[in-house]
Amino acid sequence: MDNFTEIIGFTAAILTTAAFLPQVYKTWKSKDVSGLSMPMLIMFFIGITGWLIYGILIHSPSMIFANAITVVSSFLLIYFKNKYGKK
Amino acid sequence: MDNFTEIIGFTAAILTTAAFLPQVYKTWKSKDVSGLSMPMLIMFFIGITGWLIYGILIHSPSMIFANAITVVSSFLLIYFKNKYGKK
Q1: The CATH number of the domain where A72 resides is what?
Q2: Nearest chain B CA: its distance from A49 CA (Å)
Q3: Where are the transmembrane segments (chains A, B) (predicted)?
């Protein structure tokens, strides 16, 4: 993996992660989880965990970085859905 | 890249892509784009394009597969936002 490839990877990582975090923040502040579906969130969480394992297997720093953050944030969405969805 | 790695990758690809498509479908049917922010969509689109290029550079079939689909679907969200957001 050369430097150019990792620069592309980290640019992608920062952009897609930064686009996802406001959703987590918005859900946390508004406590509005009506638009989120639990099966979808769990599917997404398992999928991102898969990408994280994939990133580790191919030794990709940018994939490990991006998916580690997204695993945590998608877990938070599951937690919010479970907490606020029961009212 | 061995078979086991690509099985993990394709599992991840199918799960994250499948979790994203209902959002595109919901937006298309409801024409409700109020929850979508254009700068965020554009950031996400450029980010996914970056992951697609990254997947090509590292010769990862599962990353190319997943991100090619997501590039198209995030472009559709930008198109819907532009079309329905102007009413």
Answers
A1: 1.20.1280.290
A2: 8
A3: 6-25, 37-57, 63-80
